[in-house]
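Hey,
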Amino acid sequence: MKPVRNTVAVGSSLMLLAASMIGQLESSGRVILTSYRDIAGVWTICDGITKGVTPGMTVTPEWCARARAGEIEAHSQPLATVPYQLPGHVILAMTDLCYNVGTGACATSTAIRQLEANNREQACDAILLFKFSMVRNQRADCSKSSSGCYGIWTRRQIERSLCRNELTPAQAKLLFKDLPLGGLD
């Protein structure tokens, strides 16, 4: 039996789509070359890179592109536990979720467990469980428009729709463009 590969490989067409989507989503198309704190207070740079980022850090657009490719590949790893081939739109949606919430949270999530059990519709719906964030040092329910993080809830809805094949990657990318930077609203 041929091994299943549900991760995003550097150089693949899926990587190009993921990099384009995540880059658009994380920064509304802007690549920020100086580190800043995101909504949760995490030091961030480029279009959502957090690993190794320090205050006052400055990078080049080329550094951002290389770092993004490596991060996308790393954040698709929780999908490696799924024992059957996933369609590209599911891989993209789940990779974006993992990129945003972290591989640890993603790997142990209901969404991944549902995919492993071949319950794709429930897995896509489980994306909406990631609706909480820290806002001004308090846990906020981002599904409430007054939360200060409603952009995160909008992102989850887009990821869910992409996962369920209700949106194409191109449509998702266009919707991501209108989201506020870092999920703030």
